[in-house]
Amino acid sequence: MISSRFSKIASWVYLATLYGFIFLPVAVLVLFSFQDGRLPVPPFNGATLKWYGEVFADSRLMSALGNSLMVAIGSSLVACVLGFCAAYGLARYVLPASRLQRGLLVAPMTVSYLIIALGLLSTFNWVGISLSLWTVGIGHVMINLPLCFAIIYASMGDHQKNIERAARDLGAAEWQVMTQVSAPMLMPSILAAFFLSVTFSWDEFIIAFLLSRFDVTLPVEIWSMLRSGLNPKTNAVGSVVFLVSVALLLILELIVFRRTAKK
Fold first, then answer.
1. Element (H, E) at 38
2. Where does it reside (predicted)?
């Protein structure tokens, strides 16, 4: 009886410590974004929405926010399309060195973003491509493509082959099987890959910093603000980034995972 009670208490202490370790920094960030003072440090002087007003009135921040959304959505769409095509080809056809190809496709997941960014920067300079949001998008496609491929490829089972075979027997062309049969069956996995890619791209800094010049994304703009010191405005921007990331994950949970669980 005593050991059972002790185990229960220990479990609750462990959970509280775990979630506190994960969420305490975020809670402090959000709390001091409402600080009625010049510095986001204790003591808390009272709540105000002044800093959020300054964030949304800052044209540079709003431009960087729009750039981040554009790059995140665009690169995620491209990564999902390429990931789906690669997964479909490697899962449905016998290709030479297919295991090697799968390994090469997921290999960028094991490489540091810094190494990828430096490699792309050298390549763009060598080819003569000017740095812009396009180059940032290419970098984000490169880091998100392996994720999209892995998620979609893992969900392609034998039961889908039977449905695809039936569609071919009924006269469907290969592109119709791919777009009108396979893609709808894999839509939960495709959406999961898309939303996760958007989340990763949305707050990615290293690639966006090294591969952009004049038009920057929100994390790079936040870094520029931090160079002049801390203030509650930077906390407010960080809180906006965090809330958008949480919203994307909630959408992923509500639209994709729960629908899959019901099926």
1. none
2. Cell membrane
247 contacts 72 by C-beta, under 8 angstroms: no
Q: Give Rg (Cα) of the chain.
A: 23
CA distance 240 to 246: 10
| Distance (Å, whole) CA 111 – CA 178 | 31
Other C-beta atoms closer than 10 Å to the C-beta of 81 total 15
What backbone torsions phi and psi does residue 47 show, to the nearest 5 degrees? Answer: -95, 140
Residue 263 pLDDT exceeds 60: no
* CB contact set of 212 (below 8 Å; sequence gap of 6+): 131, 132, 133, 135, 136, 220
Q: Could you state, in order of their start, the residue ranges of all structural domains in the chain?
A: 2-262
Residue whose C-alpha is closest to residue 258's, from 159, 178, 206, 192: 192
Give pTM, 2 decimals: 0.80
Classified by CATH at the fold level, domain 2-262 comes out as MetI-like fold (1.10.3720)
For 82-109, b/e burial (b = at least 16 CB within 10 A) is bbbebbbebbbeeeeeeeeebeebeebe
Q: Please report, as a single letter, which amino acid is at residue 194.
A: F
- For 83-103, the pLDDT digits (tens) are 998 888 888 887 788 788 888
Question: What does the DSSP assignment read for 37-52?
Answer: SSSS-SSP--B-SHHH
Tokens in use for 213? 């010049």
Three-state DSSP class for residue 258: helix
DSSP state of 47: B
Q: Are 86 and 180 in contact (CB under 8 A)?
A: no
Tell me, what amino acid is at 28? V
